Amino acid sequence: MDEIFTHIxxxxxxxxxxxxxxxAQPSVSAQGEGLAEMADLAAGMLRDVGFSVELVPTDxxxxxxxxxxxxxxxxxxxxxxxxxxPVDPLDEWTTPPFEPHVREGKFYARGxxxxxGAIVSRAxxxxxxxxxxxxxxxxxxxxxxxxxxxxxPHLAQFVAQYADLLRGAYGCVWEAGGKNARDRYEIALxxxxxxxxxxRTRGAARDLHSALAAAVESPAWRLVWALDTLKDPDERxxxxxFYDDVRPxxxxxxxxxxxxxxxxxxxxxxxxxxxxxxxxxxxxxxEHLIFGPTCNIxxxxxxxxxxxxxxxxPCEAYAKVDFRLVPDQxxxxxxxxxxxxxxxxxxxxxxxxxxxxxxxxAGDPAHPFVQTAARTAERVYGHxxxxxxxMSGTGPVHLLCGQFGVPMVTAGVGYAGSRGxxxxxxxxxxxxxxGTQYIAALLEELSI
Amino acid sequence: MDEIFTHIxxxxxxxxxxxxxxxAQPSVSAQGEGLAEMADLAAGMLRDVGFSVELVPTDxxxxxxxxxxxxxxxxxxxxxxxxxxPVDPLDEWTTPPFEPHVREGKFYARGxxxxxGAIVSRAxxxxxxxxxxxxxxxxxxxxxxxxxxxxxPHLAQFVAQYADLLRGAYGCVWEAGGKNARDRYEIALxxxxxxxxxxRTRGAARDLHSALAAAVESPAWRLVWALDTLKDPDERxxxxxFYDDVRPxxxxxxxxxxxxxxxxxxxxxxxxxxxxxxxxxxxxxxEHLIFGPTCNIxxxxxxxxxxxxxxxxPCEAYAKVDFRLVPDQxxxxxxxxxxxxxxxxxxxxxxxxxxxxxxxxAGDPAHPFVQTAARTAERVYGHxxxxxxxMSGTGPVHLLCGQFGVPMVTAGVGYAGSRGxxxxxxxxxxxxxxGTQYIAALLEELSI
Lengths: 448, 448
Fold this sequence. Notes:
- 2 copies of one chain form a homodimer.
- Chain A is α/β, with parallel strands linked by helices.
- Chain A is 35% helix and 22% strand.
- In chain A, the strands form 5 sheets. A 6-stranded mixed sheet of chain A has the order 1-2-6-3-7-18, sandwiched between helices. In chain A, strands 10, 12, 14, 15 and 17 form a 5-stranded mixed sheet that branches. The first copy, chain A, has a 4-stranded mixed sheet with strand order 16-9-8-19.
- In chain A, helix 1 crosses helix 4 and helix 2 runs antiparallel to helix 4.
- The mean pLDDT of chain A is 95.
């Protein structure tokens, strides 16, 4: 194994150059920017490593499907996405998001952590492995989609077509993950679900002088009042039935949660907050973070928001709201409950546009594949990793793995300070190299 | 008088050319754009008509002060402002806001109605009057400030210096006003007051992945919850003490209100609304419009508000809120009540920035100067105008007139469809000419 690890270190610059090319290509799914170009780039990268590659069309961005045959009967699934989050607020980036820069051992670019870094790292790991071994120990099916950041709206089309490929997989190495704020490696075994909605209110035909607020209804106020009925200041979601389907935490999950040494102080410092939400800490904080469903305002807008003052009665208002869901909450059912709740509260004038929905999927820390991944991490990182039954973020785990009973483990190259989804997204180059070694080591473990 | 009216009609094109020059000069006080240039332009216009003009400096934009001596002992005050509202949303303008266009008898530009149209109209009226009479029947003091749209923050400096000029005035012709949605001329006798505040909340040091909503407080939610405590869906302001100083409507004011034939149907059609606020109509609607204080959200912003979806926990949120006040509500006292209320409700984390305050001032429909103005309107427009004790908008009436006991009447060239403060602001050229004749006729009435 040492010769493979050394190979990876010796070829780090080539891998970073590859990452630079990948990150220089914009691929913002929310804005439909550069997706076809990025799919081609990813496909080319997989072909260079020896994959047979198809670009599977969907009604949205194409899915890159790579296949490579190995010695054994087992199939390992790899999942990544080649799209990235929008870059705004653009003026808060130190260097432009699509012009990768290396500063003080860190690689800065949109997508560096989430998750082009992981794509390139995996390609480099496979290349290094094959430079020193005759063949892969397992078959590999690599799925790289282009719409993860907008909720994978067309991935089901791919899954319907290739269900047989997915169904029999031994396990899946998921995107995301890496090191926590105490620099300990963490492996997540599932994802929260998501319901993303837009709430819209409308008033007069156009913006009016705010003096008319005495006689004309305000869509901004309607929106505020409607939002207020969704959650109270104690963070309790007020939609009747919202918590009905929440499944109790299993004993194995509870044990994994207890064993998880969550770096509270470092995380608070990192985010620049004095306290966690509602003063949470310890077991209750971890439980809320991993098993607590949320209702978050991603954005809200009405009227004049520029400098100085303008007295205007806005003619429309909207809010983008996401609900993170836990097993067995169903996004379609939550959307229906939301609509019914608004109607019951007298807000039938509030339009609800349900933009995305993904079911949640939590994992079993005791599964053999999970234990193999944990053993590998211990070997590469020098400590036993935390096993987190479900990450607080969302991805199509249920669609690709959960529904087929395939266990998953995350493997990423980011760390707690990576600023995913935010300005100055970056990875540490040392993490990038170690993450590459981890994938190679996992292959070796699977060959045993 | 006929020869003066004919003169005004014959010189309409020259006056419109003058208006075009005035509206082509941006002068957005909220953004500090073009104010000095516009002050010079206005001063030049007054000099052309025969005024002796001073540009009175303040800590903000200069005040244009014009003086002309007439035959009589009475002094008539004219008040206007040369600044305009911001132009956004820019993409909703049919033609650019600072490139005046005439279409179908209408003159489009930012400031056409509010209120460069009135400034030019007055200049043209005085010019026409002096072309056919030896001298003005009254002395005129013309005050044109440059910060009305941001609440006249420095006008008090001018007033302190020239209080003696203002104190003895017989009456004041105010800016604003014109025809209602039934094309009837209306005269307002005062203004509501204003308190304009910005509410700000802050969370983490930067925007975070929205998955962290399970553990990190959201400034967007804090803002929504804080706003919700300010007003309930029945439009009742919930700040304790808010209504304490509201003075009862006088019998003369009540009579004027009853006589006012408010064009409900036309106004609803104009604004594109099905019903007035809370289903109000008749006397209650008029009372609310004129004597009801308001609490309006001018703008609200947090997080991602672009196309598609982005899952983000915003690190800050803000709302711009205006309160329209009625006698004897005091903006400073309301600001203090707001702060105390938020603190009492547990929102001491919500920052309140009080941007502007102006006291309200309501007028007496029975005052002789008001009756003169009404008689003049009847002569020019062919019908008895409504006398509205207080307009629902705001201006520094108290500062310039109310505190000195000087009565005021509005005289403008706009109409209900003028889209003041909004895209496609415009006036009808016929109204512009009639408004010019009205000023000339008022001078004639004052000579008797």
